[in-house]
Design a protein that fits this description.
This protein is α/β, with parallel strands linked by helices and about 475 residues long. The protein has 14 helices and 23 strands. It binds 5'-deoxyadenosine and iron/sulfur cluster.
Length: about 475
């Protein structure tokens, strides 16, 4: 199975083919992933399910019997790109009539039978909670039927499935801890495509992290749409479900994972400002191996806009959380997501977003123009009335400001000696390695005797707004 990633939501690893060692026998499968880290993680579950059914893998879509695309619906342009890709595969299918083309993930869930019956772009549609059914669905298509499963589940977490690791480096891996989202931010399609929020059994999470460490991994990122609402054996109102068993919240889960091994770094994403407790911050401060880095999406710096976005916090509440981070975890890296040009956003409200950025000084930000999504609260209630040129201009101002902040923070790192986990060889030269600091700053350095997977001390000598460079300090 060739795996192609396109992490639209938070990084841009585009068109990357991932090699795997399972290349012999069975039907050949090619899998391509778009969107967020959660989709990437789900593709590892899909790979595991199909390899267990005897599928083999290819990196070449041209030699595949089955092509699956794991898709993203977060913004309109993400969906458009995927449609174009499906059209390409359909042209190839004209020469290979037996080829099965399937769509997975958020777009499958959102459009249901549409891509199959009306647009006629796929033979198979599988939503995020139906991956166990994939072998059966592929069989149905082979038998001449169209196959669809878009049922959302209240309890599927794929907890018992050991994901096949698709990341190339063998050092950093994703571990899902919750699925779905109950927040209903008014701009967001995720609650409709990924269903109700549910948490995964903490013991399976700890077990998976332990297995990763034993396989040579040195960093795990715990994934959920809102990690702070992780809860085990508790209802959403905080009532205990089974009195005879312990309960676990996110702060406690962090402590459990931190105990796996002191040399296993822990990151997590995404934190929600309305739910992030001081207990979580104290857990981070207490454990050296929980990274001092928090991704805390603000979306807007104006309380009225935040209310319309249904985010559940005000600007003041958000700043209180930032102050708590700075008090409890000095030198903590903070990044954010920002949406510009949301329905009715005035110039003053846009200025509030710029001013909260100046107050917080984020290490990094993922910045987007508002894209109206069908069925969301905002689509039903508000008009998408900010002209494209205004959205574009505001986005450019936000990006420019962020670059000045990222550069200033990076410059502050020059002269420091920082511990870096080497993740990969640098894109330009195998003599150089790329790694990250605890605070999630990317560092490029001459490898000397170091290998991927090593922790090294690096003296920072230079930077851009996007990365640091430096030299290994010998001890
Ligand atoms: N338009 C633009 N950006 C969006 N996001 C979510 N929905 C939309 C939308 N409709 C952004 C938010 C979220 C990130 C993952 O994607 O900033 O935090
Ligand atoms: Fe979407 Fe809000 Fe849930 Fe994030 S927390 S997935 S932005 S609804």
């Amino acid at each position: 199975m060739g795996i192609v990633l396109d992490k639209d939501m938070d990084e841009s690893r585009q068109g990357e083919a991932i090699s795997m060692d399972n290349k012999e026998g069975g039907k050949k499968l090619y899998l391509e992933s778009y969107g967020c880290a959660m989709n990437f993680s789900d593709s590892e579950v899909v790979a595991s399910i199909l390899i267990n059914q005897g599928f083999s893998t290819t990196q070449e879509s041209a030699e595949a019997d089955v092509i699956l695309i794991n898709t993203c619906s977060i913004r309109e342009n993400a969906e458009q790109r995927i449609r174009n890709r499906l059209k390409q595969f359909n042209r190839a299918k004209k020469q290979r009539p037996g080829l099965v083309i399937g769509i997975l993930g958020c777009m499958a869930e959102r459009l249901k039978t549409n891509l199959l019956e009306e647009e006629k772009l796929v033979d198979l549609v599988a939503g995020p909670d139906s991956y166990r059914d994939l072998p059966g669905l592929i069989e149905e298509v082979d038998g001449g039927q169209k196959a669809v499963n878009v049922l959302l589940s209240r309890d599927e977490t794929y907890a018992d499935i050991s994901p096949v690791r698709l990341d190339k480096n063998g050092v950093t891996g994703f571990v899902s801890i919750t699925r779905g989202c109950d927040n209903m931010c008014s701009f967001c399609v995720v609650p409709f495509t990924r269903g109700r929020e549910r948490s995964r059994d903490p013991h399976t999470i700890v077990q998976e992290c332990g297995a990763l460490f034993n396989a040579g991994y040195r960093e795990v990122t715990l994934l959920g749409q809102n990690v702070d609402s992780y809860r085990w054996n508790m209802t959403s109102k905080g009532e205990i479900k089974d009195e005879t068993k312990p309960t676990t919240n996110f702060a406690q889960l962090l402590e459990m994972v931190a105990a796996v091994h002191p040399k296993l770094r822990i990151r997590f994403s995404t934190s929600h400002p309305k739910d992030m407790t001081d207990d979580v911050l104290h857990a981070i401060a207490k454990h050296d191996n929980i990274c001092n880095y928090i991704h805390l999406p603000v979306q807007s710096g104006n309380s009225d806009v935040l209310k319309k976005m249904n985010r559940g916090y005000t600007r003041e509440w958000y700043m209180n959380r930032i102050e708590a981070i700075n008090r409890i975890i000095p030198e903590c890296g903070i990044s954010t997501d920002i949406i510009t040009g949301f329905c009715g956003e005035t110039e003053e409200q846009h200025q509030d977003t710029l001013s909260i950025m100046r107050e917080v000084k984020y290490d990094a930000a993922y910045m987007y123009k508002y894209s109206e999504r069908p069925k969301t609260l905002a689509e039903r209630k508000y008009e998408d009335d900010i002209p494209e040129e205004v959205k574009q201009k505001r986005l450019e101002q936000i990006i420019e400001l962020q670059h000045t902040h990222s550069l200033a923070i990076n410059k502050e790192q020059i002269g420091k000696v920082l511990e870096v986990l080497a993740e990969t060889e640098s894109k330009r030269s195998s003599d150089r390695l790329m790694g990250r600091t605890d605070r999630n700053h990317k560092v490029i350095f001459d490898r000397k005797n170091a290998n991927v997977g090593d922790y090294v001390m690096v003296r920072i000598t230079d930077c851009t707004h996007a990365s640091l460079s430096g030299e290994i300090v010998e001890d």
